[in-house]
Specification:
Elements lengths: L1 H16 L7 H19 L23 H17 L5 H10 L6 H13 L3 H11 L2 H7 L3 H13 L3 H13 L7 H12 L13 H18 L5 H16 L6 H10 L7 H13 L5 H11 L7 H8 L8 H12 L8 H8 L4 H14 L6 H14 L4 H10 L9 H13 L3 H9 L21 H13 L3 H13 L7 H13 L3 H13 L7 H13 L3 H10 L11 H13 L6 E2 L2 E2 L10 H5 L1 H14 L6 H8 L4 H13 L13 H14 L24 H15 L6 H17 L2 H10 L4 H6 L2 H14 L7 H15 L3 H13 L6 H11 L5 H11 L12 H14 L4 H20 L1
Antiparallel strand pairs: 1-2
């Protein structure tokens, strides 16, 4: 019914303009002249050489904002235009007044185009204005390119409103790719604004020139891409305005001092001024001061104060504080990560923040108010080519997000546009997504209707591989896995995925981990599975963190995982999850975590500590709606132990009874705040798979040579006792140096070879066995059994007393053994070795280790030994043996040459 509204408005306009009674020629002429004079006064066009009155900027036509005023003015100008057709200026004056009155908007576009073609800056500016009118742009096909070309042409001509709008576009978008240099150019144009009328200046010209100068200073100091000379020019403007007492330049002035932009860097002065400004209640200084506090600029770092400031009442009024706070919520320096809160903050920010938020929406399904506005802003940023915006929107549309996701066709339309423009990553993703499902169980999946031919798809992928693009290898591997585009070949698929992973492709890392776990196209290898998942998790892949957490329950045999991965991270995932993780009975995915499997290896105290650490990783779980359901699935013993630990740390004064009431929940929150975030783990350190570094390492080639000769000698069928003793001593030297193959030979044969037991001490084989159990080298089978057999042999030969002391020394020398889960798993096996637990208890008593309990293999003994190792430091037994062995190996190598 839009046409009816336009007709009604036109009829109203005619009735307003028509005289109420018959008039003489003189009266008609007077009426028309009065309309002309009034239209000139109220709608004179800027930069119109025929203007007879002071120019009125288009934005001034909306003041006061009164629809009745708009319609009356448009009627007057229409009367003047119709009555005085010889005065050409009246046509444009009518058109510009009709826009606020919402009259004839679609019909005026051809007239504006014609006027713009004659060089009219105002007509060009109005075409840009009408581009924002969906109805007009749809019916008259005003494109974004046409609108921006018209705007910039008007701005270059010196049109005030056009300069102001062009400046805004190139600073903030959304219709152009932001460009600080272009923004500075238009700011200078506004600063040097020409007089807008041929005879008269506009009433807002001086203010506009000052705005241009102000903005130029801001842009040159705050934005990137300017050299020192331009920075200095910007700072000169900023300083002059700031020194005049104008606090609107506070932020660029502080920023210039903070980073040395256009002036000598003086972070201390910047921080002092920011402190003063915040104390005086100046909102804009909050983000600057908080950022400096967080980074330790101009004074000591104080992350807690930065967080408190950003979340305070004054901080919430500072628009810039949102981005700073979101950054602190994600970097794990002063608080555990809060991705859901960060997403909401970023969604209200500038374009860079929108892009960052998209990844969080994809992972966490965060719901926000104003979802449509967020998506529209991101889509507009993508359309003009803002870095990362298009691919962020694509991934969001491919996701399962309730507001933004499940729009595969929309995502592929964007990819097609990007690919056509030469974006090769987009072209590869277009190939990858042209089948609805590329899961390993979906052989011969059906292509989408817009899928490209196989030949074309292969060409895209192979071209990417030829150029070493990681994503090309990933796409090829996924297609080979299910047998589309390329022939089905699991081995080739896994190889391609490995190539992608080794080039840094995170999605491929997860798929490679899956392949190693399932033995798909490659030998099953759980260590490699975890290694690739860990690497992906370290790079931010939530799916990899989830896979690691889920794998913990099944790690009883391999014993390759840590409590951090299996318990802390699993609870943290719950803490940061949405409502779908929770049922009426509690967090459903945590039900089996606390019983059986590795949980029994760890014991109650370490499990409780691991759960507590989860809140350092993800403090969002401290909210009542998350914490109370979690409490329901935590076993009583662990709840009591958490309360006991909180009491021991003096955060809780009640009786640990497992009730976990409000006082305990508050104590937990206070403990988390005091402890700070749990540091991130380097994936190369996870799982305790790295052996201790040898002291004074020999060249690996030398060790290999010695090992090859010694192992060859050991294979000799007939040896004298002396030869056998010498070979065992040489193998022991290799083992003492840290050579895992040598250590495994001795551990595997100690219990069944008297010669080895004569040449290798119980303490040595204990140290070697513990290293094997922690490292678990590839190719080593059933090391737990061999270790137990060795300890049993010590019992049979009466040397078991050496075992306990050797174990304590090993824990002191090898940090990996101080992990309660690792040591707990070993001690669980020791129960089956006669005398082992008693030997450990005796060592505890001899060394006067406190709180060891009465069971050498119990949780108390384990905790006491770990605490003793941490407090007493290294025993240096291992390092001394390595140093001595290094000399022996060097002599063996020299003697053979």
């Amino acid at each position: 019914m839009a046409w009816l509204a336009r007709v009604s408005a036109f009829v109203s306009l005619v009735l307003i303009a028509a005289p109420a009674f018959a008039e003489t020629d003189a009266e008609k002429e007077a009426r028309i002249q009065a309309a002309v004079d009034l239209c000139d006064q109220e709608a004179a066009v800027p930069l119109d050489p025929e203007a007879t009155a002071p120019p009125i900027q288009f934005s001034e036509l909306f003041v006061p904002f009164d629809q009745e005023v708009f319609e009356k003015r448009a009627a007057t100008c229409r009367e003047a235009m119709v009555g005085a057709p010889d005065k050409k200026r009246l046509r444009l004056q009518y058109l510009r007044t009709a826009i606020p009155a919402r009259i004839d908007i679609p019909q005026m576009v051809p007239d504006l185009r014609a006027l713009a073609a004659t060089g009219s800056a105002e007509a060009r500016f109005l075409l840009y204005i009408l581009y924002g009118e969906r109805q007009a742009s749809a019916e008259n096909d005003i494109t974004r390119a046409e609108a921006i070309h018209a705007l910039t042409a008007a701005a270059e001509a010196g049109h005030q409103n056009a300069l102001e709008q062009a400046l805004r576009e190139y600073r903030f978008g959304p219709n152009v790719l932001r460009d600080p240099a272009r923004a500075a150019h238009f700011a200078e144009g506004l600063m040097n604004l020409p007089r807008q009328g041929p005879h008269f200046a506009g009433k807002g010209e001086e203010a506009a020139r000052e705005r241009g100068r102000w903005t130029l200073g801001w842009v040159l100091v705050m934005d990137g891409g300017f050299d020192d000379e331009r920075r200095a020019a910007g700072f000169a403007i900023v300083k002059e305005i700031y020194d005049s007492g104008d606090q609107s330049m506070l932020v660029p002035y502080l920023t210039a001092l903070r980073y040395g932009r256009g002036t000598v860097q003086d972070a201390a002065q910047a921080r002092a001024l920011a402190e003063q400004a915040v104390a005086e209640g100046r909102v804009a200084a909050v983000s600057v001061l908080a950022g400096m506090l967080a980074e330790g600029e101009g004074g000591p770092a104080d992350g807690k104060r930065a967080l408190a400031l950003l979340t305070s009442e004054i901080g919430q009024k500072d628009f810039g504080a949102k981005e700073v706070l979101a950054g602190l919520y994600l970097d794990n320096r002063y608080t555990g990560r809060r991705p859901r809160e960060a997403a909401r903050l970023l969604a209200a920010g500038y374009i860079e923040s929108l892009v960052r938020a998209a990844a969080l929406f994809t992972d966490y399904d965060v719901m926000i108010d104003g979802a449509t506005r967020y998506e529209t802003r991101l889509a507009m940023a993508a359309e003009v080519g803002e870095p990362g915006a298009a691919m962020a929107l694509v991934r969001l549309k491919f996701s399962n997000h309730p507001d933004f996701g499940n729009d595969d066709s929309g995502a592929r339309a964007i990819l097609a546009r990007l690919a056509a423009a030469g974006d090769r990553e987009a072209a590869l993703m277009l190939v990858e997504t042209q089948f609805g499902d590329l899961g390993t169980s979906s052989f011969n999946p059906r292509p989408r209707g817009d899928a490209m031919p196989d030949e074309e798809a292969r060409a895209v992928v192979e071209a990417g591989i030829a150029d070493g693009m990681a994503s090309a290898y990933r796409v090829k591997g996924r297609l080979q896995r299910v047998g589309v585009v390329f022939p089905q070949d699991d081995a080739a698929a896994t190889k391609a995925l490995l190539d992608a992973a080794e080039r840094g492709d995170v999605a491929a890392m997860i798929l490679v981990g899956d392949a190693y776990g399932d033995g798909l196209g490659i030998a099953e290898n759980h260590r490699e599975r975890l290694r690739w998942w860990r690497e992906a998790a370290a790079r931010g892949a939530l799916a990899a963190r989830e896979k690691l957490a889920n794998a913990f329950v099944f790690d009883s045999f391999d014993k390759l995982m840590t409590l951090r991965e299996g318990v802390t991270e699993r609870v943290a995932l719950y803490n940061n999850s949405g409502a779908g993780f929770v049922t009426s009975s509690g967090p459903v995915q945590l039900m089996g975590m606390f019983s059986g499997g590795r949980a029994m290896d760890a014991g109650t105290s370490p499990m409780a500590s691991a759960v507590m650490d989860a809140f350092r990783v993800a403090p969002a779980g401290l909210a009542e709606e998350k914490l109370v359901p979690l409490i329901r699935v935590i076993p009583d013993a662990i709840r009591i132990e958490i309360e006991r630990q909180l009491k021991a740390a003096e955060f809780f004064s009640g009786t640990p009874d497992g009730n976990f009431g409000p006082d305990v929940r508050q104590a937990l929150a206070d403990w988390v705040d005091a402890m700070g975030p749990l540091p991130d783990v380097d994936p190369s350190d996870a799982g305790g798979t790295t052996a201790p570094v040898a002291a004074g390492p020999l060249p690996m080639e030398l060790v290999d040579r010695v090992r090859d000769r010694v192992f060859t000698a050991a294979m000799k069928k007939k040896m004298t006792d002396a030869e056998r003793t010498a070979v065992i001593a040489q193998i022991n030297a290799l083992a003492a140096y840290g050579d895992l193959p040598a250590r495994w030979v001795l551990v595997r044969n100690y219990h069944q070879s008297g010669a080895i037991r004569q040449g290798v001490s119980p303490a040595e084989v204990t140290r070697y066995g513990l290293d094997i159990l922690v490292t678990r080298p590839e190719g080593v089978e059933k090391p737990d059994f061999e270790f137990i057999f060795d300890v049993t042999a010590m019992m049979d030969e009466g040397t078991i007393d050496q075992f306990g002391a050797a174990l304590v020394n090993a824990v002191r020398d090898d940090e990996r053994l101080r992990d309660p889960l690792t040591l707990g798993a070993i001690m669980q096996q020791m129960i089956f070795a006669p005398g082992a637990c008693d030997s450990v208890l005796k060592a505890i008593e001899t060394l006067k280790i406190a709180d060891g309990g009465d069971d050498g293999c119990g949780e108390g003994a384990r905790s006491a030994i770990i605490a003793f190792a941490k407090s007493s430091g290294a025993a240096n037994v291992d390092s001394a043996a390595r140093q001595a062995a290094a000399q022996t190996l060097a002599e063996l190598d020299a003697g053979a040459n």
